[in-house]
Write a structure and sequence with these properties.
The protein is built from 11 helices and 14 strands. The chain is of the alpha/beta class and about 290 residues long. One of its GO terms (cellular component) is cytosol.
Amino acid sequence: MPADAEFGVGVSPLALGGLGLVATDLDGTLLDSYKRVSPCTQAAIAQLYERHIPLVIATGRPLRWLPPVWEQLPLRPLCICMNGAVIYDSFHHQVLRRAVLKPTVLRDIVQSVHEALPEACFAVERITSEMTPSTGEGPVEEFLIAEDNEHIWYEQNAPRTSLAALAEEPAAKLLVRAVGMSSAEIAEVVCPLVEPVANATYSVDGGLVEISHPVATKGEALVRILDYWDLSEETLLAFGDMPNDMDMLELAAWGVAVENAHPAVRAAADEVTMSNDEDGVAVVLERFLSA
């Protein structure tokens, strides 16, 4: 069966305007379940490089989690990190943009969410534009956990501090976990509390919500990148799988969800491709590159 028939593909504006930029999420989208970039996907990305079509990585990951991905790519891409809080040039090791929550805003959000969800646990991601002294590369990052809840966080050896101290310095992300609740359930409580002074979203289903500056979204970061390169959104092809990818897919001329994507993302996408374990991103790239 032709790909167009199998995945319900219509006529993309990209077919008329030409492919100018590709943006993709990592976990659950570009990477397979073992956090690998498949040889098929590597080959498709190499074709982008050969045709001078930029690739932008758009992820909720902090910057320090990206080197294992870069090592698997045939190029050093521009990276949107922490859902848009940071735009990072991985070739020149330079932070191009930061959007952080100010301490006054952080304090109000922590207080409001703590009152609404007394059982919630908090952490922050901080990042500066300074270089790391030991390597002379990349910015200084800090992940801090509030009080004694290290067992539920992904970096259990991270420094611990008081809940009040989390809000003493600007943060790229405030993270909220609540055991026994899904991410969607937490978001339903948190979103009305933080809008419009912050943006709340989630990239996993396991009871974690990420709160950032209102302009710290993948879509907003891509608007800036498109403007810098003098490209139209009508030339943008984007891939994603979770709610934190939604505004990126809506911005793109052609937004693609992988088969394993969140139901809301699948419903909003222009196309649903194969899963991240079946080279779904590569399948679409190869189709556009061969057109």
